[in-house]
């Protein structure tokens, strides 16, 4: 896994003070409403890590919080150790007290140096193991030093002094929940080595009072171990929720980017299709404009062929040759008709044909159609029926006639022999 340096977490006041007891319900509400749980230094890691990688991240976060919260937690240690020496000064050998205080301050100084070094260097997640074991060892040593007062400063004949020492031990253990509780093995080691010597020392005295004190200490130890476990579980659950939220945000970002990319591609494809359509329309209009403009020039060769063919027909007296010329004339006329239709369509598409609507009788048009299409219909053995009508039409007579001729011509052409065209 790539190395990343951890950022210093943002201070959450509900977690920052070791002397205050932390209410999980209040802390959970504060976390969910304000998002004030410190941001970790590992958000730049893989977006979808494996289960083992995620557990490594959680361990890393716990160690980061533990080192950060340890520095403020040294203040009660300094003053608490001094208070114990002052109270026990007249009951325990002064040399013993001073040696104990020197060992306590020395171990605390080493841990402060170790914590400052961790904060300054902010090791990568792959290099967290030495720091984890260092914190565990330091917590065990600190618990053993404080726990040694159960033997070194035990005064059997003074119950108030014993209650004072047990009060100090209980207070130190309670404060350790919010300082060392981020890393559960370190808290277990600290709490057990802190309370267990006093339990053993009181249990060794054959008196009911001391046995009762040993039982109370045992209950206290078990209770605080359970409380520390619940507190640590809450911290881990909070980190997991934040990781899940981070993953969801990253997934949402990825889906948003994919949707934006798909939208951009669709818009680009639509734009390209629109551009191609416009180019095709421009080309089609250009073609139609060309044919409409050149229609007169294009008709001239066909008209010349028709004139030459008719002139040739008038000079032929042989029936066999005249029949061939008649076929040529019929083909030329058909070609002219098709060509005229094509050019008319091109002129319509180009917009150069303007309709000139007038009123005219439908009977005039119907008579022309009957006269022109009765012979070809008779040749195919088709009955062409035209109903008389006195309707007055309002349209361009030339264009209307061309449309009507197309309908009738197609009907005659594609009706089977013996049919009827109405």
How does this model look, in words?
- The chain is mainly alpha-helical and 422 residues long.
- It contains 13 helices and four strands.
- The chain has a two-stranded antiparallel sheet. The chain has a two-stranded parallel sheet with strand order 2-4.
Topology:
Blueprint: H1 13-16, H2 24-34, H3 51-87, H4 94-121, H5 128-147, H6 149-152, H7 159-179, H8 184-203, H9 208-293, H10 295-314, H11 319-350, E1 358-361, H12 362-379, E2 383-384, E3 392-395, H13 397-414, E4 420-421
Parallel strand pairs: 2-4
Antiparallel strand pairs: 1-3
Helix pairs in contact: 3-4, 3-5, 3-7, 4-5, 5-8, 7-8, 7-9, 8-9, 9-11, 10-11, 12-13
Poorly predicted ranges (pLDDT <50, ≥5 residues)? 1-49
Question: What level of helicity do the residues show?
Answer: over 70%
Q: Tell me the radius of gyration.
A: 53 Å
Q: How is the biggest beta sheet arranged?
A: 2 strands, antiparallel
Structural class: mainly alpha
Helices and strands, in order, run as HHHHHHHHHHHEHEEHE
Percent in strands: under 5%
Mean of pLDDT: 75
What gross morphology would you assign? rod-shaped
Distance between the termini: 88 Å
Count of DSSP helices? 13
Q: Give, in spatial order, the strands making up the sheet with the most strands.
A: 1-3
Number of strands: 4
């Amino acid at each position: 896994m790539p190395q990343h340096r951890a950022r210093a977490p943002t201070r959450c006041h509900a977690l920052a003070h070791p002397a205050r007891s932390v209410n999980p319900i209040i802390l959970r509400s504060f976390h969910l409403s304000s998002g004030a749980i410190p941001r970790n230094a590992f958000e730049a890691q893989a977006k979808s890590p494996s289960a083992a990688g995620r557990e490594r991240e959680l361990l890393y976060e716990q160690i980061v919080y533990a080192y950060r919260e340890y520095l403020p937690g040294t203040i009660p240690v300094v003053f608490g150790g001094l208070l114990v020496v002052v109270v026990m000064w007249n009951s325990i050998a002064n040399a013993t007290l001073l040696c104990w205080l020197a060992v306590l301050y020395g171990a605390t100084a080493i841990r402060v140096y170790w914590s400052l070094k961790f904060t300054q260097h902010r090791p990568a997640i792959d290099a967290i193991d030495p720091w984890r074991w260092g914190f565990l060892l330091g917590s065990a040593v600190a618990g053993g030093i404080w726990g040694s007062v159960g033997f070194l400063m035990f005064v059997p004949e003074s119950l108030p002094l014993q209650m004072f020492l047990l009060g100090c031990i209980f207070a130190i253990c309670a404060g350790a929940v919010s300082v060392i509780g981020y890393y559960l093995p370190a808290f277990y080691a600290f709490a057990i080595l802190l309370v267990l010597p006093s339990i053993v020392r009181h249990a060794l005295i054959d008196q009911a009072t001391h046995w009762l004190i040993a039982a109370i200490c045992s209950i206290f130890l078990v209770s605080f171990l359970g409380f520390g476990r619940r507190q640590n579980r809450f911290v881990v659950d909070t980190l997991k929720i934040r990781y899940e939220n981070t993953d969801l945000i990253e997934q949402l970002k990825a889906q948003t980017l994919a949707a934006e990319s798909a939208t951009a591609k669709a818009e680009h494809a639509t734009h390209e299709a629109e551009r191609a359509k416009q180019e095709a329309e421009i080309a089609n209009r250009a073609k139609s404009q060309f044919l409409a403009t050149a229609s007169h020039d294009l008709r001239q060769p066909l008209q010349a062929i028709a004139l030459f063919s008719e002139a040739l027909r008038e000079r032929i007296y042989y029936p066999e040759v005249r029949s061939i010329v008649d076929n040529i004339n019929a083909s030329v006329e058909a070609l002219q008709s098709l060509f005229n239709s094509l050019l008319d369509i091109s002129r319509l598409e180009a917009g150069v044909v303007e309709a000139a609507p007038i009123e005219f009788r439908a009977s005039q048009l119907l008579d022309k159609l009957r006269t022109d299409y009765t012979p070809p219909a008779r040749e195919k053995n088709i009955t062409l029926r035209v109903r008389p009508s006195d309707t007055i039409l309002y349209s361009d007579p030339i264009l209307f006639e061309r449309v009507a001729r197309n309908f009738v011509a197609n009907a005659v052409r594609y009706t089977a022999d013996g049919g009827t065209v109405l």
